[in-house]
Amino acid sequence: xxxxxKKSSDNVSFSLSRWFRRVSTHAPSAALITIxxxxxxxxxxxxxxxxxxxxxxxxxxxxxxxxxxxPDISSQFVADTLISVVLYALGFVGLLFVYQSSxxxxxxxxxxxxxxxxxxxxxxxxxFLEGSINFKQTGGQ
Length: 141
Hints:
Elements: H1 3-24, H2 30-45, H3 48-54, E1 60-62, E2 65-67, H4 78-103, H5 108-137
Helix pairs in contact: 2-4, 4-5
């Protein structure tokens, strides 16, 4: 083996070992872990696991009526999952706005606006989730 080829192969192995060491010792940030954990929680609360396991219908058109929400509490459509996941995420974003408003007390106008937006998002999420549960309990009537 020539000395030039041996030198280039040594450089390649050194750069690969340095890259492997960097990748293997890299720790994800706390923010990334938090975002992944909350996303997983919202996915589970929204019924994502049920949708993955049972493969329900996306929605239904029965007797001239289009249903996004399954009219019974015992099952769900894919649209049920999507709607509930969006509403849970909306509620969580509302909680984040309320939290951020408490951190900006030195800017009272901004804090007040963020508090109003956060409470509004939280209330909208709650009202629509309760409405969808009520719709399912009454059988879609």
